[in-house]
Amino acid sequence: MARDDYFVIAYRLLKYLYDCLKKGNKPNNEVLDSDFFKIGEDYWCYILNNLFEDGYITGISSFNVLGVYEKRVKILPTLKITPKGIQYLEENTLFQKIKGTVKDIADIIPI
Predict the structure, then answer these.
(1) What is the pTM of this model?
(2) Residues 39-98 pLDDT 10s
(3) Which residues constitute the domain of residue 15?
């Protein structure tokens, strides 16, 4: 699976947010950016909007830009994974396959 696949990015983001939650850390704004994942802004907004609408994360505000069909997002300081997101992270079989390639936080955030 490519590093820019939807499910790979969703897994990496949810895993990162879950690790932040467990450690009591606020997510790093540099990680919460399309450039970090090396994807386009439209794709990043699409991923965040869907994770939010599916109830896997909280703490984003979405809005339509005039003349643009795509929704944009603003990440709020309250961004967190939800219990539903944690359950999805732990139980999704596709995520279990991805877990083999993304072993820990070091794969998510370069040191």
Answers:
(1) 0.78
(2) 998 899 999 999 999 999 999 987 776 665 566 788 888 999 999 999 988 887 666 665
(3) 6-101
Structural domain total, the chain: 1
3-state secondary structure 2-55: CCCCHHHHHHHHHHHHHHHHHHCCCCCCCCCCHHHHCCCHHHHHHHHHHHHHCC
Residue 1, domain member (yes or no): no
Tokens of 50: 């869907």
Q: Do the domain assignments include residue 94?
A: yes
CA 38 to chain centre: 13
Contacts of 68 (CB under 8 A, 6+ apart): none
Tokens of 88: 């999805």
